[in-house]
Amino acid sequence: MTDQKTISTLVIPNTTKIVLLVLDGLGGVPLEQGGLTELETARTPNLDALARDGICGLHDPIGRGITPGSGPSHLALFGYDPVGHLIGRGVLEALGIGFDLQSGDMAARGNFCTVDSDGLITDRRAGRIPTEKGAELVRQLRSIELPDVEVFVEPVKDYRFVLVLRGKGLSGPLTETDPQKLSVAPPPVEALHADAARAASLFNQWVAAARELLADLQPANMVTLRGLDKKPNLPSMSGVYGLRTAAIAAYPMYRGVARLVGMDVLPEGESVEEEIETLATNWADYDFFFLHVKKIDSAGEDGDFDRKVSLIEHADQVLVPAIVGLHPDVLVVTGDHSTPALLRSHSWHPVPVLLHSRHCRSDEARAFSERECAKGALGRLPATEIMPLAMANALRLRKYGA
Amino acid sequence: MTDQKTISTLVIPNTTKIVLLVLDGLGGVPLEQGGLTELETARTPNLDALARDGICGLHDPIGRGITPGSGPSHLALFGYDPVGHLIGRGVLEALGIGFDLQSGDMAARGNFCTVDSDGLITDRRAGRIPTEKGAELVRQLRSIELPDVEVFVEPVKDYRFVLVLRGKGLSGPLTETDPQKLSVAPPPVEALHADAARAASLFNQWVAAARELLADLQPANMVTLRGLDKKPNLPSMSGVYGLRTAAIAAYPMYRGVARLVGMDVLPEGESVEEEIETLATNWADYDFFFLHVKKIDSAGEDGDFDRKVSLIEHADQVLVPAIVGLHPDVLVVTGDHSTPALLRSHSWHPVPVLLHSRHCRSDEARAFSERECAKGALGRLPATEIMPLAMANALRLRKYGA
Predict the structure, then answer these.
(1) What tens digit of pLDDT does each residue of B194-236 get?
(2) Rounded distance, CA B263 to CA B276, Å?
(3) Cα distance from A281 to chain B (closest Cα, Å)?
(4) Taking CB atoms and an 8 Å limit, are A379 and B58 in contact across chains?
């Protein structure tokens, strides 16, 4: 019932403002059984106050036991069915660097890598070549032409680039060419459907030309392609929810997902402080703000429990009071997934979520933590239900049926 | 898994009795953040005792964040998918006054209104003319004839009436003609699908004739039509659950929904006391009773927190002991939705539910309130799962699979 088509029929105008603060990788796990998680360890008086006055729960980004990628988990937070709308990493990466993907385009994420004289991979990231080196190689790769399609190659960061093919009749699904291990040759792109044969052939022609062009270089003498996919046509958030939406996010991937659902992507900052500044400056012009804080997740990925704790504390001290000071009608604080330092990766653990509004009917949760959120009256909920709840609390949905 | 088709294959006969007591608009919100809801404020020793011995939870009538209308929320409580079975208010209103709607009939809810000499609405309710006046005007409107269809006009209450067209090939969806504001003319009925063109034309012919007929009267010199819809064919509760079902409800709308699912509608009373009398008198003849108490919702709609509290207390003192005294095998007490006095309207907040039976495996909920129900072992559940639970507790469902 929280499907977007139905929700969109219930939307009524209002002047209320909604802020969705995503602390990437927020959820955690204790290092020792019976201990505290990162969030439970962190001193977070401001988040705790919001949790006490608000309503809390634990959300599953995709489903119980499923470890989400960043793309699907953000789509779910924005209220889009993440399974019906699975999006390849190539598309997200292209959108993330601000590439103007058009309908029908196919995008792939590319990695420079190193192969030996037999063509077997010896380094999947080509010694993590610096960004400038990657950009220089990308310029060389732009000389590759393919029949009947336009080809775009764009640098991302370090050893990563984006490849986009534009033309008629391109279609997936396609396999990837990064074998994810050493001492094997990158396999060719394979079409997983008859309609995808032409796209597979074009990508393979491009890889062959790239291999030839890079052959005598070191360490980046080969490429692999991942997440080959077509740009999906998602309904925009403004169309679905009647909201003027804006994203504030420092990392390309998250700006990319935001663009995919039609958000205005505001100029990013280098720091949390600059993100606050952007929020305040643009406060009057939007109804919905998606604020993304990346570094908490990175600390989890690095297995650095203490750094994750202190980054959560920093968000609590700096970001939360600044947002509260703007008096949003609805403030949602959550993560897109858990990233326990113990696991050094995204995980399937459900994610703490708090919703604060004048109308939320607060619950017994006394603090913002995994344990307290488990007692919250939001209960255990799919991430896709957070937007309908935010809309309801913002008094932006009419009654369903008579 | 709670879909009715599957449930119906599991039904086994028994002599157990189920009572579903619906306190309309039961759920609430504190007036001040951190305060108590209406139900938490009310002194409800009898409901609290049931909650302690029973099992509690919070149900979502339609979905998280969705504010339900009375029709969909009751269908959900009866175990019907409320989204798959959305029903127009015209149909509910017609059923509510006991009109014998037949398959293929289209019904609309009509309002008498006042228009000025330019045809612009000056009063959407024609000065709330009394019921007798409305009935007199309805008698005049019965003179209107339409080609190839039968026309029925029935008074409801005050300025409201029901219009039913009966004939072959009538179909929706249709737009309404109440613009919901003043100083505009009622728009014509429009067909939202090619198949609906004939019905739209017939309704418009009828409205034109009504305008002519009422033109010289005051204040009711025009009509508007709302909720134009066809009677849906729902499976009956007796067919699905193998129960002899009866409804006791004072308001037409609720008797209407009950009729739609095939319940016998017992004579209503003016008071809670009379409803109890009806229940006791008919106790032997049915397996399932739906008891509806309307006034709690009305107090919420009026924004009258204290009156809502005292009406809940009255139900606790008078209704609950009388029902318990009949020793139903399963007693479910809940609301169809929340109606917080704070919001003066239906709302999206989940609704407290308690289920009391010999077999329910009671939980930690110590009282019947939003907060205690949030701790209950039923958890957060869709309203459609209440009937399967009631059936199970009544030992009326066999094992699924071998």
Answers:
(1) 999 999 999 999 999 999 999 999 999 999 999 999 988 899 9
(2) 18
(3) 29
(4) yes
